[in-house]
Amino acid sequence: NKEKPHFTIDNIAPAHGPVVGGTRVTVRGGPFEQYIGVYLEPKCRFGSDSMIVGASYISCTAQAAKAQDKEGKHSDRVSTCIQCEDTPASLESKPVEFSVSLTGDFSDVESASQFY
After folding, report:
1. How are beta strands 96-101 and 113-115 bridged, if at all?
2. How many angstroms separate the CA atoms of 36 and 81, rounded?
3. In the prediction, which pLDDT does 65 show?
4. How many CB atoms lie within 10 A of CB 54?
5. Residue ranges of the chain with pLDDT lower than 70?
6. Taking CA atoms, which of 28, 58, 59, 112 is between 20 and 30 Å from 78?
7. Residues near 7 by Cβ (< 8 Å), separated by ≥ 6?
8. Contact 43, 104 (CB under 8 A)
9. What is the pLDDT at residue 99?
């Protein structure tokens, strides 16, 4: 019995896509690194349960949090993000609740974002 993962969603990029679907969404937040070998099939949900797609762990730069080193130069921290497979087609153009589940059954969802 695995412990429920705890993570946050800092931002999703892009935060919107065409109604026809096909947008690949990258989720920044985490921490996701510690769950890579534990939860093997993360999923992304766009609104309803019929709009669930698979996801994978990818390396990314934590662009939102630019760390400054001693010389004052910007350096990007490399971290782990979740990349959702192509978004499903939607019947209407409206904001939907976006959530990520590492367990795949959405029992671990604590926060959601908007995707439109």
Report:
1. antiparallel
2. 10
3. 44
4. 13
5. 1, 62-76
6. 112
7. 29, 30, 31, 32, 35, 100, 102, 110
8. yes
9. 96
Q: Which residues contact 65 (CB under 8 A, 6 or more apart)?
A: 77
Amino acid at 104: G
* Farthest-apart Cα atoms in the chain, separation: 51
Residue type, 36: I
Rg (CA), the chain: 15
Predicted pLDDT at 75: 59
Query: Residue holding tokens 């192509």?
Result: 86
The long-range contacts involving 47-53, CB below 8 angstroms and separated by at least 24 positions, are: 47/90, 47/96, 47/97, 47/98, 48/96, 50/88, 51/88, 51/90, 51/96, 53/84, 53/85, 53/86, 53/87, 53/88
User: 78 by DSSP, 3-state: which?
Assistant: strand
pLDDT at position 50: 85
- What's the pLDDT at 54? 98
